[in-house]
């Protein structure tokens, strides 16, 4: 590694899993970097649901940074339990996780925490929301934040998620609505409060599929079941739902799932007042941008895809890994960033296609049959 490279100052915009992991890897290589995160540190349950971390992508930087043992102490291998159910309650596929599989589950908040634990505090600034940037004549970039601060860097990495404010400096391409909207509901401490539902759901994912609707349930590490009540629906439908009181919303969801088996409607009956509305967006598959020596993207900012292949966080972590591998491989900083972009964009393109194919499958008229048969065929090949 040349001094020339480690002297570069790097701004990482966004302290999600991707930005944090990039920061830790840069720190371990001796780079001058700062992570800017718009939020303030929050508690685990406000920081997203459970994510499966894949051994061929998301786990690579976890091993590289030496936090694998910590990761292993928190992951739930039993979280790989999988069930596919038709809307009449027929269980089409069911598999209980055995031993240590390659895709264990961890809550997003815990994943962020174990990376953050290793980051020197002076390298992360909270309450800094990226506002704009300006390319200066001395090859530096001036980054402005909504709190009025301005800082100068050699390179800015936009790791600021789906609705990235950095991305528009590299591309005019907009996000596409996938046609899927979700009402995210939570069932707290399910083992104690709803033991029958806990036994029905098991320790992992239960996917009830019924054509244009789905109930996608997942046990989280904090004892909640998070259910993505999902619809193939126009974008506007959620506007109506957002106006409803909690009891009206519950009645609406029960009415939408009228005719579904009682075992499945039990998830809605048990919902708490912790509700989130989500429209699922994506970038066009194969999204790219013209290389810019001062600016690049990572994670959802670079390749937002729908969550139906469970690849989003894995590609974000993989990007961070490749970023630092590229810096090790090339003496020239700019060449390294070009190489990084080529590698991550082709890797993400395949995952984005898989996510889109899964979306089509999971909202097809015979979705439960198709997905059940798919899992059964994979199982019989093992
Ligand atoms: C319903 C749902 C379920 C999902 N399930 C899975 C799954 O099972 N498996 C999986 O792999 N992926 C899943 N994902 C996707 C996964 O959550 C994302 O792909 C992953 O979090 C991307 O990480 P990231 O670091 O790129 O971005 P994010 O996690 O979005 O982090 C971006 C960070 O940037 C910060 N930020 C935003 N704007 C600014 C700004 N202007 N200035 C400064 N900071 C800013 C945000 O506060 C945030 O901390 C799911 C997504 C959804 C919506």
UniProtKB/TrEMBL annotation:
Keyword annotations of the record: FAD, Flavoprotein, Monooxygenase, Oxidoreductase
Superkingdom of this protein's organism: Bacteria
InterPro entries: FAD-bd, FAD/NAD-bd_sf
Molecular function terms, GO-annotated: FAD binding; monooxygenase activity
Domain FAD-binding intervals: 10-51, 154-328
Pfam families: FAD_binding_3 (PF01494)
PANTHER family according to UniProt: FAD DEPENDENT OXIDOREDUCTASE DOMAIN-CONTAINING PROTEIN, MONOOXYGENASE ASQM-RELATED
Name of the protein described by the UniProt record: FAD-dependent monooxygenase
């Amino acid at each position: 590694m040349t001094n020339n490279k480690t002297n570069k100052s790097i701004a990482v915009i966004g302290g999600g899993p991707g930005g944090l992991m990039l920061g830790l890897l840069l720190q371990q290589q001796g780079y001058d970097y700062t992570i800017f995160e718009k939020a303030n540190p929050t508690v685990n349950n406000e920081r997203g649901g459970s994510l499966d971390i894949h051994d061929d992508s998301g786990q690579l930087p976890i091993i590289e940074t030496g936090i694998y043992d910590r990761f292993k102490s928190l992951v739930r291998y039993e979280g790989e339990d999988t069930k596919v159910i038709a809307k009449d309650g027929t269980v089409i596929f069911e598999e209980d996780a055995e031993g240590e599989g390659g895709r264990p589950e961890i809550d997003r908040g815990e994943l962020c925490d174990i990376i953050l634990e290793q980051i020197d505090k002076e390298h992360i600034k909270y309450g800094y929301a990226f506002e704009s940037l300006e390319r200066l004549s001395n090859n530096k970039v001036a980054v402005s934040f909504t709190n009025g601060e301005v800082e100068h860097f050699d390179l800015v990495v936009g790791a600021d998620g789906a609705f990235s404010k950095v991305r528009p400096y590299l591309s005019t391409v907009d996000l596409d609505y996938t046609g899927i909207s979700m009402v995210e509901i939570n069932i707290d401490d399910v083992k104690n409060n709803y033991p029958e539902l806990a036994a029905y759901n098991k320790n992992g994912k239960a996917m009830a599929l019924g054509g244009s609707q789905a109930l996608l349930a997942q046990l989280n590490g904090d004892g909640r079941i998070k259910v993505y009540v999902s619809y193939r629906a126009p974008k506007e439908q959620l506007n109506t739902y957002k106006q409803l009181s909690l009891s009206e919303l519950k009645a609406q969801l029960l009415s939408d799932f009228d005719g579904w088996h009682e075992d499945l409607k039990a998830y809605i009956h048990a919902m708490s007042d912790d509700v989130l509305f989500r429209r699922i967006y994506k970038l066009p598959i194969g999204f790219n941008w013209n290389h810019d020596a001062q600016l690049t993207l990572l994670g959802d900012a670079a390749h937002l895809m729908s969550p139906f292949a469970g690849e989003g966080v894995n590609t974000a972590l993989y990007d961070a890994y490749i970023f630092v591998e590229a810096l090790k491989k090339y003496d020239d900083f700019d060449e390294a960033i070009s190489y990084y972009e080529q590698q991550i964009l082709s890797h993400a393109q395949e995952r984005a296609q898989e996510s889109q194919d899964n979306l089509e499958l999971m909202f097809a008229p015979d979705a439960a049959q198709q997905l059940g048969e798919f899992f059964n065929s994979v199982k019989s090949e093992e």
